[in-house]
Design a protein that fits this description.
mainly alpha, 2 domains, Serine Threonine Protein Phosphatase 5, Tetratricopeptide repeat, globular
Length: 225
Amino acid sequence: MGRLTNLIGTIKDKVSQSRVAMVSNPRTLSLHLAVLRATTHDPSSPPNQKHLTSLLDFGHSSRATASAVIETLMDRLQTTRDAAVAIKCLITVHHIIKHGSFILQDQLSVYPSTGGRNYLKLSNFRDNSTPLTWELSSWVRCSDKDINNEEKVSSLMNNDLLREIDSSVGLLEEMCKRPDFLHMLGNKLVEEVMGLVEEDYLLAISEVSIRLSEFRERLSSLSLG
């Protein structure tokens, strides 16, 4: 069954790349293919580092190109019903945040440019095609939790500080709900996800600690209201 799933995924990837090659503008074809290659249907392996690097390279081009990359990636995330593809899109987003150029990170932070919906909110995502994809779906649904990483916490208003503490604690709670992947040991994609979550868990604890320390210093001067 696993081999059949992998074969079907490979066929889907080939079809997607062929379709993009036929309908894309020649000037944007390479970035569309870069996104597809970084977010394949293979449920057993994480994005190839070479493909991630190729995608990040577009961040050293124009702002319009960086914007097109983010738009293509977010469209891929929002339209797929495949858990492996969604997880890889989120891993790619994580990679951009950690290692992307300023212009690529900036385009990610302002997307969509018109404001409005949170494109990382995927609380209704479900892929029940296999037990693995069903479990991966729970990680996809957690992606709308985030931390506002303020460098100057002391400049926050009290209400904003409390809001960030609540958001950070909410993220920690979601991480503690992680699926039991013990029966999936050896799956490289799962190991990649677990590694990233563990890194973010430590970061979240640090962020909560910083904000609680700031709140503690302000506590004596706060009114009852």
